[in-house]
């Protein structure tokens, strides 16, 4: 039996054809027509109101996409564009992947972590308000916020964005996991922030890592809102080379541009975006339906802030209702050739960030202790899905009869 992976790349003939087209063109370089086309197609996609993909749609002229070597590079550039300097404090979601915090360290700045809201698993706006007030009162106000859209669901920007604006800090939306997600303010249908994820902050970023819903094998995108930021991002991403015939450098830059072959794969994936999402949605719904007889499972609250992209099907095991722990379930799945993963370990529990300040922390700890991500790849077949369902239900059943 083949091993079932958590979220493997789902690439096929369309991506292969695009890759060969790019290869045959001779543009095997970090410049080329595929990069330009991937950026403009992403702008067109983001210019629409939904997660549909219209390659010929008209682009908004206040959106700029810069294709980069990774989502982490995009976060780093967003912080530099926000003029973050050594010693600055930057607020960061506690419940996230380490890249969100590491980018702050690249700038010599200090991440300060904020707990999650139980109803979305994303950053808690009340915690943000408290941190902004407290740090200002202490005379060392935060300079920016990196807010993660966890597992493909947007944070509550209807509350978060006004708080950032009121305190004059840059809002960087870490939508690494949320390509294709659509934000909807739960209390306002007219909120101008409603629309594709990536646009709710001053800057947005996507990741196209191998495990993401849309993959290029490795890559990222920075979304900015004006031409001068986009020009500066490109300049910094190409070693800050001055526009002169010879190599002239007046400040430190980075080698952060995406390659032309990589961008071609991205174009193929972007054209399949609605299908990639609907396949993951079907998996999530199938898990929920088949495992409905097990009230000891609670599911990620997808739908709390609009249409998620269903990147990963995540569950919580209620410790008051079952003796099955996430670790026990993970091992049972692994024994049957199925990969699953604990939820992100909160930043304040990481040895790397143990000394950093945290506002709250009990919600993210609780989610981490009780959660598990099940296989969710868009290429998962119904048979594979059933194998996962069987192991989960058998494991829960076995421990029920024990009890
Ligand atoms: C929330 C979050 N932020 C940032 C990143 C970094 O993206 P990349 O791996 O493309 O650098 C990832 C994923 O890897 C992520 O999940």
TrEMBL record:
InterPro entries: DegT/StrS_aminotransferase (IPR000653), PyrdxlP-dep_Trfase (IPR015424), PyrdxlP-dep_Trfase_major (IPR015421), PyrdxlP-dep_Trfase_small (IPR015422). Pfam families: DegT_DnrJ_EryC1. The lineage of its organism: Bacteria, Pseudomonadati, Verrucomicrobiota, Opitutia, Puniceicoccales. Belongs to the DegT/DnrJ/EryC1 family. The keyword Nucleotide-binding does not apply. This is Aminotransferase class I/II-fold pyridoxal phosphate-dependent enzyme. The modification N6-(pyridoxal phosphate)lysine is found at residue 212. One of its GO terms (biological process) is polysaccharide biosynthetic process. Keywords: Aminotransferase, Pyridoxal phosphate, Transferase. The active site is at residue 212. The keyword Transcription does not apply. One of its GO terms (molecular function) is pyridoxal phosphate binding.
